[in-house]
Amino acid sequence: xxFAMIFCINLxxxxxxxxxxxxxxxxYSAYSGNNEILSSYNTANPTLxxxxxxxxxxNGLQLGLRLRGEYVGMDFTWERSSAKKFANGIDVNEVLVxxxxxxxxxxxxxxxxxxxxxxxxxxxxxxxxxxxxxxxxNFESSVRVxxxxxxxxxxxxxxxxxxxxxxxxxxxxxxxxxxxxxxLGSLAQNLGVSTKNGAxxxxxxxxxxxxxxxxxxxx
Length: 219
Fold this sequence. Notes:
By secondary structure, the chain is mainly beta. It has a domain at 21-32 and 53-82 and 104-132 and 140-214: Porin (Beta Barrel), CATH 2.40.160. It is 13% helix and 59% strand. The chain contains 3 helices and 11 strands. The protein has helices spanning 2-10, 32-44, 185-191, and strands spanning 17-29, 48-50, 57-68, 72-90, 96-115, 119-135, 142-161, 167-178, 182-183, 200-201, 205-214. The chain has an 8-stranded antiparallel β-barrel. Strand 7 (142-161) and strand 8 (167-178) form a beta hairpin. The two termini are 28 Å apart.
């Protein structure tokens, strides 16, 4: 209760400073369920000239708002990241194939942060929606292969570089912990393969964000 009162006072209009944020995000995960499916497709089609490579990295854009007090703040972020994977060549039926998988993840996150001058720590809860699409060759359309959502949380460090009274830049390494798994059975079905582990995707995520804040900056 006492912490809540201090937090509210710290973020009142008299103390809080509203910043617009824009940033770049790079995210790594093992993606073991997804990569097992891609590997199964490669194994089933050994004549491919360019088989699928493992998926490990997503990258993309962050936009949001931060309301910062002297020592604590609130953060709202939208993050859109993506990745692509390709396979080309002759399949097991001696048919020329060109496969493309487009991965897109959208996250909306609400978090709390604590700071001193150049260092801080933050934690948020996020809602994520993952979409996997496969473009149809020679057509301007795609087949939706997978579409689902889940919740999770992210814990991150805040390393602030000296800036001006209206602009600052921050490096934010993080770990993200999904609260549930994705079942990528529809991806396996689209590629015509089966998996040993039921196409379950539930890995931790590691990464970093480089974020610019525009607006009044606390000293």
